[in-house]
Specification:
Length: about 70
């Protein structure tokens, strides 16, 4: 069974747009199914910043960058 991660992004967020293809590629390499969810659909959740990666817990921008760079 594949792990599932949710990538929360803002429709007008330049960081989100920049990271999205890198997150998709890394998720594919790691065998993770990635669900992309716009922030407007999850405003009621306690999202403190975007982009946000929800995997086994919530990960912020800096952690996502480290994941892409394989520093985790």
């Amino acid at each position: 069974m594949k792990d599932i991660a949710q990538y929360i992004y803002g429709e007008d967020c330049s960081k989100c747009k920049f990271l999205e293809p890198h997150v998709e590629k890394r998720a594919e390499e790691m065998g993770i199914q990635l669900e992309k969810i716009p922030y407007s659909e999850v405003k009621d959740m306690e999202i403190t910043s975007i982009p946000m990666l929800l995997w086994d817990k919530a990960y912020d921008y800096d952690w996502i960058i480290a994941l892409i760079n394989d520093k985790n």
